[in-house]
Amino acid sequence: MRPTGNRNFTSASRAQATADARAALDLGCAAIRAWPQGGLWNGFLGRRGGVSRGPYQSLNLSHFCGDDPADVDANWRRLQSCFPGTPFVLVNQVHGNAIHVVSDRDAAMADSNARPAADGIVTAARGVILGILTADCVPVLLVDRAAGVVGALHAGWRGVIAGIAHKGVRAMTSLGARPDRIEAAMGPAIGRCCFEVDIELARRFEREMGGARAHIRIASPHKAFIDLRGLLHDQLIDAEVESRAINPAAICTRCSSDGFFSRRAAGGAVTGLQLSFIGLPE
């Protein structure tokens, strides 16, 4: 099964449906909501609440990291039980800065094999949920409530250097949003405490991003620590999003790997991916 709005579970037993419904309640409690008030679907999920095993334990929502497809399908059923009949739209994340605009409920978009290559999604369509998968990269959710436009970004270090936050805001404005009305929330990601890189990469940030030095701590002649969320905050400000409207999460995925997937915490080994999502109900 792939993320889709078609909930045709006629083969599932009543007991399984009941179990999924109970699990959905658990997921609802586990999701971190940047905007808890009504009128906006949103959340940053962690690794708890699913059925996957081993390094994917337990709420892995990626079909492309080596997990048992049946377990991933079961995890998606649990999540979709929270949003009956609502399609989830994801993209093929490639660590770039391309933004995909979702103009309607394109059914093919819910098929994993049809995902366009991009690292951001924006839409003015209601009744659809945008999703981004991460394991240390920064998930960014965006909304202009007045315009009815939402966005979701996957910001790894390559995307940050490539200005994905700028491009995400511009894509939203093309749909009628205004930067000064946009609210932004960053989810759990590797923190400045743990994102250690070679000094050459730190120097590249300094060369290619104005003001990057303020978010880099040199640890030795060969290593440095980078604050990706701090860099994204500056990008959003530069894109004319107001500082008071930006909510940077304080959770580091590596420090909190019991609750969130983290490639760094796994020593670079394979792991699952958690979902961050946003959408406007009809």
Keywords summarizing the entry:
282 residues; alpha+beta; CNF1/YfiH-like putative cysteine hydrolases; 4-stranded mixed β-sheet; 6 helices
Short structural description:
It is built from six helices and 13 strands. With 282 residues, the protein is α+β, with helices and mostly antiparallel strands. The longest helix is centred in the first third of the chain and has 17 residues.
Walk me through what this model shows.
The structure is a single chain. The protein has helices spanning 14-30, 69-80, 157-161, 164-173, 199-208, 228-238, and strands spanning 41-44, 88-89, 99-102, 120-123, 129-134, 138-144, 149-155, 183-186, 196-198, 216-218, 223-226, 246-248, 274-279. The protein is of the alpha+beta class and 282 residues long. It has one domain (15-190, 251-279): CNF1/YfiH-like putative cysteine hydrolases (4-Layer Sandwich), CATH 3.60.140.10. The strands form three sheets. Strands 3-4-7-6-8-12 form a six-stranded mixed sheet. Strands 1-13-5-2 form a four-stranded mixed sheet, with no helix packed on it. Strands 9-11-10 form a three-stranded antiparallel sheet.
